[in-house]
Structures are given as C-alpha cells and as structure tokens.
C-alpha cells in the first residue's frame, strides 16, 4: 500500500487524545486493534476531506466519516479488536453499543452543546479558541444548532429546548445507562475479559469526555465518578493506550494551567475589547446612518408635502391683498 | 437528600397501593394507518400488559399520534395519567406493583436493557427506513395508508411531511446514506444477535420479560405484514429459533386469551 | 334662505378643514351647529358657506355673513382671491387635508340651493362664468405611470356632468376623494382651467388631475398588540400592482409566542371600489393557555365584499388546515383528544350595519353584525353550522356621557353527528367580554382547561363619561373614558335531543354577571385598553374569576 490510512480528528485537550466522542472511539479502536494510522489532529473541520470530523481517508483515497464505517473498514483490513469474542459476546457488544446510542448520546449532546452554561463556558469557548480566525466566529454556533437539531430528531420532539424537564429526563436515562454499564463491567478490566474490544472503545469514547472535562454543570460527571469501576476503566485505557496525552493533560493541567489560562486570557481579552469597540462603533455608525437616512427622507417628504401648501396660501394671500 | 428519598419511597408505596384501574385504555391509530412501526409497538405493548396480567381496553383514534404526550404510539391512559412508550409504561406498571424483570440479577437486567435498546436502535429504525425511505414501499403502501383518515389535500400533505421528518431523523442517526440492502443487512445482524442470545431457551431470560414482549412485537409484525417484496421476511425467517419463539408467545398470550 | 345655521351658539373646535373654494386652511367654527344638523365636518371656509356631504346644506356667503362676519373676516383672509383666480390664474386648487370617508354616493347637492351672491368687488368676466352654464371639455390626468387610465375613467367621469363652475369644483373634489380612496396615489391635485385650443368653447373648462403615484413597493415595520400578546410585524406592500388598484400584501410577524405570515391579494371592481375581492394565504399560530391548546392554521381564503344599501356584506370561503396540539404535558385528556390535524372548509357570510360615529368610543349610532358559517359542505373534516351576532346601541346622555348597550349571542350546530372541534366552539370571559372573569374562562372545563361551548350569549350595559379627563378635551383627554359597566353572559353545551325550550332554559340558568368601573384607553382606532375594578357575581364552579383589578386589551369588546 502506497499511502497509509489517514485519520483526521479534533485536537485533544483535558488530557484526552481528542475532545470529540466519535474521534475518541475511532482512536481507541485503532489503538486496540493496533492499526497503523496517520493521525492528523486538526481544529479546522474545513480541512478534513469530508468537511466534518472525524474523517478517514483510506489508501484508496476513499473518505469515510461515520464511526461504524471506519471500524468496519479497519476490520476488513484485518485490524479486528473483536477477534476473540464469541458470537454471544458479539451480540452483547452490539446491544450495549445500541444502549449507549439510545440513552447516553442524547445526554452527551445535551451536556456539551445544549446546557447553556456548559456550552458558553466550555464548549463554545474551547472551539472558538482553537479554531482558526474567521471560522471561530460562526462555526461553534452552527455546530450547536446542528446538535440541537439532532437532539430534537433523536427525541422526536420538534420544539425541544434546554430546560430542567429535558435535563432531568435525559440525565435519568443517562445515569441508568451508566449504572447498567457499570453493572455489566463489574470488576473486570475490560468488558470482555482482559483484552479490549470495540465495545470498550465505544464506552471509552463516550465516558472519557464526561470524566475529564471540567463543566460548570457536572451532574453526569459526579455520577460517573461515583461509579468507581467505570472511572477506573477510563483512566486505565488512557494510561495504557494514550500515555502521552494522559500525561500531557495531567502535567499541563495541574501547574501551568492557571498560568497558561492567564497568559491566554490577556490577548483574548484585548482582542475582545478591540472587537467590542469596533462592534459598538459600527453599530453607532450604522444607527446614525440609518436614522440619518430616515430623517433625510422625512425632510424630503415634508418638503414635498408642506411647502406647496404654504406657498399656495401665501400666494392666495398676496392675491387677496392685491 | 434523605428526606427527598423518603418522599419518593412514600410516593412509590402510595402509587403501588393504588391498584391497576379497570378502565385503563390503550389508544392506537386506526388499523393499518401507521401500519409498520405502530403495529409493532401495539403488539409489544399489548404483549407486555398481557404478560403482566393487566387488563386494558384498546381504542382506535386517527389522531392517536398527536394525542400522545411524546408523539409515540400507542399510549395508555390510566386514571388521569397518560403514559407512552414501553420504558415509561414498564416503570409505571412497576410502580403499580407489576413487574416482570424482578427475578433478574443486575447483570441480566443490564443485558436485558441493552438488548431492548438494540431492538429499538436497529429493528425499529430499519422498519421506519423501509416504511418511509424505500421509494417503492412509500409510494405503494405507506403514503396511502398514512393518509387514510384525512380528507383530500391533507392526506398527501401529512404523508409527505412525515416522510420528510423520518428522512431527517435518518440523517440524524447516520442512516441517511444507507441503501435498502444495507438496511436488510442491519436487520440480519440484529436478528443474528438476538438469535445468538436466545439460543435454545424459551425466553431470553429464565422468565418472560419486557424484552420478550418487545422482540415479539417487532418480529411478529415483520412476519405478518405484507410488503412490496419478501426480502425482509426472508431475512427474519432464516432464524428458526426466533420463529418458534414468536409462535410460542403468540400461542401463550394471544390465542388462548382471544378464544 | 337656509335657516339651519342661524341657530345655536358658536363654539370653536380644533378640526381643520380646507375650503373647497379657495383652498384656505381654516378652523371649523360651526361644528356644533352642523353636528346638530348632521354629524360631519364642513368642506368650506366660513365665507363660502357650508357644504355638507349628502345633507343638502349649502349656505351662501351672504347668509353666513351676518352672524359670522367678524369671525369670517378675521380668520379667512383669502376668500377675496377666489373669484378672480379662475380667470386671472386660470386654476383652482382643490385640496383637502382630511379626506372624507366616501361611500360612493354623490353629494346630493341641489342646484336650486346654490345661491351665489356676487362679491363686494365684482369682476364682470368672473360673474358671467359663474352664473352661466359651463361645459367640461377635457379631463386630463397627469403624472400617471403604471396606472391604467380606464380605471380612473370610472372615478372621474362624473366631472363631465357638471353644469356650472361650482358644480365642476364639487365634482372635481369628489373625484379627487375617489381617487385618493383607491390608495394608489400619494397626492392628487385638481386644476380647473378655461379650455384653450382650436375646439375650445367660450364656456368650456378643462379639469386636470395632477397625481403622484405611490411607490411600487412599500415596506412597513410595526409592533402590534392583540389580545394579550405582542408581536412585531414586517410588511411589504405592492400597491397598484397591475395598474388597476390591485394590492399585494405580505406580512411576516414574529410574535412573543409564535410566528406567522400572510400573503394577500386585493382586487377591487373598477369603478366600484367597495365591491372587491381578496385572496389570502396565511399561516397563523396561536396559543391558548386557558385551554392548554396550541393551534397552527395554514389556509387559503377568498373574500368578496359588497355593499347592499346601507349594509356591508362579505361572502367568504376558507379552506384551512388546522393543527392542534397541547401546550404543555399537563394538558387535560379532553384537550389531548382534540389534538391532531383537521381540515376545515367553510362558507361564511357576514352582514354588518355600522352607523356608529367611532369604532372605539361611539357616542351615537348602532352596530349590527350577523355572521353565519357553514363548514363541511365543501369538503374537509369539520362540519357544522355556526351563527352568531353582535349588536351595539349607543345613546348620548347629559354632559357628553354615553349609554351603550351590547348583546352578543351565538350557536353552533354540529352536522352529521360529528362532535364539534374545540377550535370552533365559543369562548366567553375576559377583560373585554364578560369582565371580572378570567380570559375565556367560563363554562365547560376539564382539569382546568376550558373547552368552550356550543351556545352563548352575553350582554353589557355601559355608562361612559369623559368626566375626569374633561380638561384634556381636544387632545390627550380624548383618549380616555371612565365607564361603569354591568355585564352578564352564559356559555354552555347543548344536547340537541332536548329541543329548543330546554336550550333556552339552559342558557338562562346559572347566568354569570359582573359589575364595576374602570378606565378605558383608546389605542389608535382599532383597539382599546381597559383597567377595571370588577365584582364578579353568579360564579359557577370551575369558572376562573378575576375579583378586583383586571387589565386587558381587546379589539372586540362587549
């Protein structure tokens, strides 16, 4: 094969190899199966061959963007993490993957994209800071509306909105799902014995962001942390399969983060100040222009309507006098 | 926290004290209206309630889909409560003191839930796909049946609206680009998993559970519904243990009681 | 001599009118007198007498001179110029600042009443022209762009029938009003000139209408307040689209609750503006929290308006796709059962007579509106026959206070045994209907959601007085009234097996009524705000009451 398979995925942070669940699943699966991938971590979805992330470019220059397709492709390339599973275990992993799709995914979308505080403080901020210049203004917002649309379709509710009721419902499903996963895992190292399978990749991909990301509204995280075996399962995988990212995250996180945060903040603050000044100026100018036009029109209208009257009257008066 | 928990317990015990009312009503659209996915849920709900031994009256309403609080059909109206979908109904009947899965241990319950989601995730989506995204089925069967209760321009408008909505949903769950053959393949995969899990047992677990009701509902509908081609039917038929499972449940819960 | 004007004291009112004869701006000093004769404003300044629309009151200068001479002298200084101008300048500008509402009728001016007396400074040629018969030879319209001339032909043809100069002026004035009423011109000026050219007759006149067309596309932006909701409305209008006063309107409204849009096409019959056809296409969304109901209507309708004598009629066909849904999960099951899609195709007819002098604060006149609707005959799921009426009588009492009585009633008969839909039934109660009760919160209900009724009646007796706001008369104070009211009404469902007597009995028992007092504020000329202190009586179980202060806005009021 001429060129190795290429995987485009979101950059990592918070001690994770990537911030996106789907990317994490693919990365983890590739690691478990030992597939040699050329991983490109980018923060500009427009640079991916499919326009979205993750994207997978095969050696035949085919582009895959669905997680399941990528895994199937890897499996066909003989990188199969599920090789040792029995038929029944295969059925079980299919079932649990479905369980996560149905119960955990909506809650994940909600926590990261819909919950207003989390979205504004963490998700949007992260994407806005990492994306290149013009994109960071509109892409996060567009991604959010896409996710909201997706959640609406998944829940089958056209006019669903962030709110306590929705949150309660989604989190109830999600915590139930987490409990079930925890019960299924028990005290094992991985879901099916000692070696990781595709189910492990899925579970890791879904749980790791919840566990590692510091969210203002961290109800799911709290619950997950209380399930020791699942929390350990995630950190184990991070330690074993993504040692660099895990360490990076930790080392970056504990001492330099506040520092880096401050350092980061100053220019962004300046930029914000400048930006707000420009916006305010623009708005004022626009307003002035707008009202100016209106008033000009007004004057014109009056000029058209009123003076003839006056003239008329004036002329009559003259006539009358004369 | 403790006080809240106590209150919840109190609540549960109170509702449990209230017996299942005689006038419980199950609402469903007119026969054949939503034909595929709706009759699936009708069967699995009825099966579940029969397994629990809970009497229910079935009422047909053309607007059942819109009456339901979640937009899913059918739903039950018990006392002054309206509950739709299997999950909430199971919880509800549990609160009333009727439960099928009490005899299972934690791991089994986790597996049961997971398999239920597998059925929802794959079989249900596949049914919706065939019903609304396969052009021959849509034009020959679905559109006509869906529009039956409405008068002229509305029947077409609503059918197209529904089709559009289902297609968007398919895109959202990542099924947008699939072909019918891929969907048949998914159904096979799901049946394969179910068949593996069932093995030679009479039920998926030692006792009949909501999973059995759910699987029966879907498979029985697929087996008894006439489609434009028999591909789907053939795929399901190739799993003999699933076939005999369906027959067994039909005999136990439907034929004996209907006669 | 006409004696109408010689009686009564003269009071000043602030209404400005423009003299038809000399186009001077003047204050109407004879409103009082005139109003007594017939409620309308003058068309001319003091010195040129009073021309009354349809009222045959035309008073010559000489008649008026005696009692009003001073006033006339001081206020209007231009009248002397009038007589000379048709000759000297060759033109008369007829212009009005407040266009009269026209009803397509001729001014019933009897030529015998016109007694023109010569001015103190006589002009020979002028007099000849004035007393002699004239012939209108040409009528020109200048400034036409996309407007088709045949349309205007109908509106101005009457000018040719004028027999003398005054008549020409009057007819030209009417023609001008008729042109303005079409809503396609920004302004219209009339020039009357002696005919020139080869074929000019010695007593020939040319009338020229100088018009200024409205722009092809106009936009608007406003905020609207309806029954307890606000919205902002963006509108686009294409007036005079094809050239015959057609109008295409598009409205998009983004409301506090829902968005809606509407597209309408208006086409009047050329020469008979009041007979017109309107085609509509719309989507309207409404939320009705008192029923936990949400309704989205998408529909098309065709309306045909035509006057018959003093009555206005409207024939309408409407095809509407209604989508009902629950506003909240907690909605009652009775409302749930109603949700879903339905199609209504209905023919309706409305007859109305409105002789009130104002839509919001009438002081005299009556309104009768009768509406009947037949649904299901032309297709659709809903089938019923619905009949309702509205009657309002006003009478002026002492000190400008007004006694007003209104009565509403309606009934809905389901056809073919189909139960009536929640969206078709009647509702009662609220700050502008039966006061003292919650908005539409009277009658049959289920778990707190009001389901409406198939029959209702409501009556109200009001005493309006401008009293505390009297000092602001003529300005701010005209926006307010104080009122004392007594409202009553009932709403119920009928069982059609019981016969009409049982129905009447049912409507007569358990009557809800209320009384109180409050302040009414006029919002433009379409809506009003009320702040009332109400005392509800005859409350039945299930009714939601509003004991004490109640505030609300409404377009229709009891």
TrEMBL record, chain A:
<feature type="domain" description="Metaxin glutathione S-transferase">
    <location>
        <begin position="174"/>
        <end position="237"/>
    </location>
</feature>
<dbReference type="InterPro" id="IPR036282">
    <property type="entry name" value="Glutathione-S-Trfase_C_sf"/>
</dbReference>
<feature type="domain" description="Mitochondrial outer membrane transport complex Sam37/metaxin N-terminal">
    <location>
        <begin position="23"/>
        <end position="144"/>
    </location>
</feature>
<dbReference type="InterPro" id="IPR033468">
    <property type="entry name" value="Metaxin_GST"/>
</dbReference>
<dbReference type="GO" id="GO:0007005">
    <property type="term" value="P:mitochondrion organization"/>
</dbReference>
<keyword id="KW-0812">Transmembrane</keyword>
<dbReference type="GO" id="GO:0015031">
    <property type="term" value="P:protein transport"/>
</dbReference>
<comment type="similarity">
    <text>Belongs to the metaxin family.</text>
</comment>
<protein>
    <recommendedName>
        <fullName>Metaxin</fullName>
    </recommendedName>
</protein>
<keyword id="KW-0813">Transport</keyword>
<dbReference type="InterPro" id="IPR050931">
    <property type="entry name" value="Mito_Protein_Transport_Metaxin"/>
</dbReference>
<keyword id="KW-1000">Mitochondrion outer membrane</keyword>
<dbReference type="Pfam" id="PF17171">
    <property type="entry name" value="GST_C_6"/>
</dbReference>
<keyword id="KW-1133">Transmembrane helix</keyword>
<dbReference type="InterPro" id="IPR019564">
    <property type="entry name" value="Sam37/metaxin_N"/>
</dbReference>
TrEMBL record, chain B:
<dbReference type="InterPro" id="IPR036282">
    <property type="entry name" value="Glutathione-S-Trfase_C_sf"/>
</dbReference>
<dbReference type="Pfam" id="PF17171">
    <property type="entry name" value="GST_C_6"/>
</dbReference>
<keyword id="KW-0007">Acetylation</keyword>
<comment type="similarity">
    <text>Belongs to the metaxin family.</text>
</comment>
<dbReference type="InterPro" id="IPR033468">
    <property type="entry name" value="Metaxin_GST"/>
</dbReference>
<keyword id="KW-0496">Mitochondrion</keyword>
<comment type="subunit">
    <text>Interacts with MTX1/metaxin-1. Associates with the mitochondrial contact site and cristae organizing system (MICOS) complex, composed of at least MICOS10/MIC10, CHCHD3/MIC19, CHCHD6/MIC25, APOOL/MIC27, IMMT/MIC60, APOO/MIC23/MIC26 and QIL1/MIC13. This complex was also known under the names MINOS or MitOS complex. The MICOS complex associates with mitochondrial outer membrane proteins SAMM50, MTX1 and MTX2 (together described as components of the mitochondrial outer membrane sorting assembly machinery (SAM) complex) and DNAJC11, mitochondrial inner membrane protein TMEM11 and with HSPA9.</text>
</comment>
<dbReference type="GO" id="GO:0015031">
    <property type="term" value="P:protein transport"/>
</dbReference>
<dbReference type="InterPro" id="IPR019564">
    <property type="entry name" value="Sam37/metaxin_N"/>
</dbReference>
<comment type="function">
    <text>Involved in transport of proteins into the mitochondrion.</text>
</comment>
<protein>
    <recommendedName>
        <fullName>Metaxin-2</fullName>
    </recommendedName>
</protein>
<dbReference type="InterPro" id="IPR050931">
    <property type="entry name" value="Mito_Protein_Transport_Metaxin"/>
</dbReference>
<dbReference type="GO" id="GO:0001401">
    <property type="term" value="C:SAM complex"/>
</dbReference>
<feature type="domain" description="Mitochondrial outer membrane transport complex Sam37/metaxin N-terminal">
    <location>
        <begin position="45"/>
        <end position="162"/>
    </location>
</feature>
<keyword id="KW-0813">Transport</keyword>
TrEMBL record, chain C:
<dbReference type="GO" id="GO:0045040">
    <property type="term" value="P:protein insertion into mitochondrial outer membrane"/>
</dbReference>
<keyword id="KW-0472">Membrane</keyword>
<keyword id="KW-1000">Mitochondrion outer membrane</keyword>
<feature type="domain" description="POTRA">
    <location>
        <begin position="134"/>
        <end position="214"/>
    </location>
</feature>
<dbReference type="Pfam" id="PF01103">
    <property type="entry name" value="Omp85"/>
</dbReference>
<dbReference type="InterPro" id="IPR000184">
    <property type="entry name" value="Bac_surfAg_D15"/>
</dbReference>
<dbReference type="InterPro" id="IPR039910">
    <property type="entry name" value="D15-like"/>
</dbReference>
<dbReference type="GO" id="GO:0005741">
    <property type="term" value="C:mitochondrial outer membrane"/>
</dbReference>
<keyword id="KW-0496">Mitochondrion</keyword>
<keyword id="KW-1134">Transmembrane beta strand</keyword>
<comment type="similarity">
    <text>Belongs to the SAM50/omp85 family.</text>
</comment>
<keyword id="KW-0812">Transmembrane</keyword>
<protein>
    <submittedName>
        <fullName>Sorting and assembly machinery component 50 homolog, like</fullName>
    </submittedName>
</protein>
<dbReference type="InterPro" id="IPR034746">
    <property type="entry name" value="POTRA"/>
</dbReference>
């Amino acid at each position: 094969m001429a060129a190795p398979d290429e995987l485009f995925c979101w950059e990592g942070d918070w001690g994770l190899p990537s911030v996106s669940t789907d990317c994490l699943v693919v990365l983890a699966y590739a690691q478990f199966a030992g597939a040699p991938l050329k991983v490109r971590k980018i923060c500009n979805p427009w640079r991916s061959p499919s326009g979205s992330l993750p994207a997978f470019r095969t050696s035949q220059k085919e582009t895959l963007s669905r997680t399941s397709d990528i895994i199937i492709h890897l499996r066909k390339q003989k990188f199969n993490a599920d090789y040792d599973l029995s038929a029944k275990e295969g059925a079980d992993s299919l079932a649990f993957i479905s369980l996560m799709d149905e119960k955990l995914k909506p809650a994940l979308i909600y926590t990261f994209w819909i919950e207003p505080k989390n979205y504004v403080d963490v998700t949007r901020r992260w994407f806005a800071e990492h994306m290149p210049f013009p994109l960071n203004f509109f892409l996060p917002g567009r991604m959010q509306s896409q996710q909201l649309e997706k959640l609406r379709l998944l829940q089958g509710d056209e006019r669903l909105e962030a709110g306590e009721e929705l949150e309660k419902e989604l989190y109830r499903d999600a915590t139930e799902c987490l409990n079930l996963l925890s019960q299924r895992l028990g005290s094992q190292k991985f879901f099916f014995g000692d070696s990781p399978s595709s189910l492990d990749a899925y579970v890791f991909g879904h749980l790791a962001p919840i566990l590692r990301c510091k969210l203002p509204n961290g109800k799911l995280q709290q619950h997950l942390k209380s399930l020791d075996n699942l929390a350990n399962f995630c950190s184990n995988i991070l330690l074993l399969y993504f040692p660099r990212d895990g360490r990076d995250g930790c080392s970056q996180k504990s001492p330099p983060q506040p520092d880096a945060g401050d350092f980061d903040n100053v220019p962004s603050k300046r930029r914000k100040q400048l930006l707000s000044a420009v916006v305010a100026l623009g708005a004022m100018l626009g307003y002035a222009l707008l009202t100016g036009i209106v008033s000009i029109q007004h004057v014109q209208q009056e000029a058209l309507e009123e003076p003839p009257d006056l003239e008329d009257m004036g002329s009559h008066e003259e006539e009358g006098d004369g | 926290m403790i006080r809240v928990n106590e209150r919840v317990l109190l609540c549960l015990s109170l509702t449990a004290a209230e017996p299942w009312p005689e006038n419980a009503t199950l609402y469903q659209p007119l026969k054949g209206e939503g034909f595929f996915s709706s009759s699936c849920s009708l069967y699995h709900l009825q099966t579940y309630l029969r397994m629990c031994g809970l009497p229910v009256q079935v009422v047909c309403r053309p607007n059942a889909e819109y009456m339901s609080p979640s937009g899913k059909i059918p739903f039950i109206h018990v006392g002054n409560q309206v509950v739709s979908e299997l999950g909430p109904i199971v919880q509800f009947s549990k609160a009333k003191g009727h439960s099928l899965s009490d005899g299972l241990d934690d791991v089994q319950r986790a597996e049961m839930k997971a398999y239920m989601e597998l059925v929802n995730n794959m079989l249900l989506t596949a049914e919706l796909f065939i019903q609304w995204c396969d052009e021959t089925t849509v034009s020959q069967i679905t559109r006509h049946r869906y529009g039956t209760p409405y008068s002229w321009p509305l029947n077409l408008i609503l059918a197209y609206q529904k089709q559009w909505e289902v297609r968007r949903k398919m895109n959202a769950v990542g099924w947008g680009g699939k072909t019918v053959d891929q969907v048949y393949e998914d159904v096979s995969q799901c049946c394969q998993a179910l068949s593996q899990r069932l093995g030679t047992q009479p039920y998926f677990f030692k006792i009949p559970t909501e999973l059995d009701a759910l699987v029966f509902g879907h498979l029985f509908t697929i087996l008894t519904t006439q489609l434009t081609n028999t591909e789907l039917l053939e795929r399901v038929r190739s799993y003999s243990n699933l076939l005999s499972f369906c027959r067994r449940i039909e005999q136990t819960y439907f034929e004996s009681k209907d006669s | 001599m006409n004696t109408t004007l010689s009686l009564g004291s003269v009071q000043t009112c602030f209404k400005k009118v423009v003299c038809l004869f000399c186009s001077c701006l003047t204050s109407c000093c004879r409103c009082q007198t005139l109003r007594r004769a017939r409620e309308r404003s003058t068309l001319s300044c003091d010195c040129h007498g009073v021309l009354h629309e349809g009222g045959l009151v035309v008073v010559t200068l000489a008649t008026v001179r005696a009692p009003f001479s001073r006033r006339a002298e001081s206020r209007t200084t231009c009248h002397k110029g009038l007589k000379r101008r048709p000759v000297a300048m060759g033109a008369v500008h007829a212009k009005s600042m407040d266009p009269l509402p026209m009803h397509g009728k001729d001014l019933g001016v009897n030529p015998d009443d016109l007694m023109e007396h010569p001015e103190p400074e006589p002009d020979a040629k002028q007099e000849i022209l004035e007393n002699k018969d004239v012939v209108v030879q040409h009528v020109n319209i200048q400034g036409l762009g996309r407007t088709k001339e045949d349309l205007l032909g109908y509106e101005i043809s009457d000018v040719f029938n004028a027999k003398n100069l005054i008549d020409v002026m009057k007819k030209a004035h009417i023609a001008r009003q008729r042109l303005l009423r079409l809503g396609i011109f920004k302004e219209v000026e009339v020039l009357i000139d002696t005919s020139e050219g080869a074929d000019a007759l010695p007593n020939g006149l040319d009338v020229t209408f100088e018009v200024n067309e409205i722009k092809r596309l106009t936009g608007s932006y406003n905020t609207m307040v309806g029954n307890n909701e606000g919205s902002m409305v963006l509108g686009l209008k294409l007036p005079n689209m094809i050239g015959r006063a057609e109008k295409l309107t598009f409205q998009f409204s983004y409301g506090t609750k829902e968005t809606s849009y509407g597209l309408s096409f208006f086409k009047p019959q050329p020469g008979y503006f009041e007979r017109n056809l309107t085609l509509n296409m719309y989507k309207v969304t409404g939320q009705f929290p008192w029923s936990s109901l949400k309704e989205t209507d998408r529909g098309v309708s065709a309306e045909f308006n035509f006057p018959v004598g003093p009555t206005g009629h409207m024939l309408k066909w409407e095809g509407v796709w209604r989508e009902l849904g629950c506003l909240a999960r907690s909605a009652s099951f009775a409302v749930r059962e109603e949700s879903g899609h339905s199609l209504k195709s209905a023919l309706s007819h409305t007859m109305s007579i409105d002789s009130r002098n104002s839509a919001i604060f009438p002081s005299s006149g009556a309104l009768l509106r009768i509406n009947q609707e037949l649904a299901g005959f032309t297709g659709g799921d809903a089938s019923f026959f619905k009949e309702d009426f509205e009657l309002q009588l006003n009478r002026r009492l002492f000190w400008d206070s007004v006694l007003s009585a209104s009565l509403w009633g309606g009934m809905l008969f389901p056809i073919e045994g189909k139960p009536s839909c929640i969206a078709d039934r009647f509702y009662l109660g609220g700050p502008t209907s039966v006061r003292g009760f919650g908005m539409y919160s009277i009658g049959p209900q289920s778990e707190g959601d009001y389901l409406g009724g198939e029959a209702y009646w409501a009556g109200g007796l009001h005493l309006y007085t401008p009293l505390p706001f009297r000092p602001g008369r003529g300005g701010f104070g005209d926006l307010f009234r104080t009122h004392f009211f007594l409202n009553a009404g009932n709403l119920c469902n009928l069982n059609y097996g019981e016969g009409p007597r049982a129905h009447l009995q049912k409507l007569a028992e358990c009557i809800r009524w209320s009384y109180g007092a409050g302040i009414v504020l006029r919002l433009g000329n379409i809506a009003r705000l009320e702040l009332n202190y109400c005392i509800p009586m005859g409350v039945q179980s299930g009714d939601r009451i509003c004991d004490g202060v109640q505030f609300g806005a409404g377009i229709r009021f009891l």
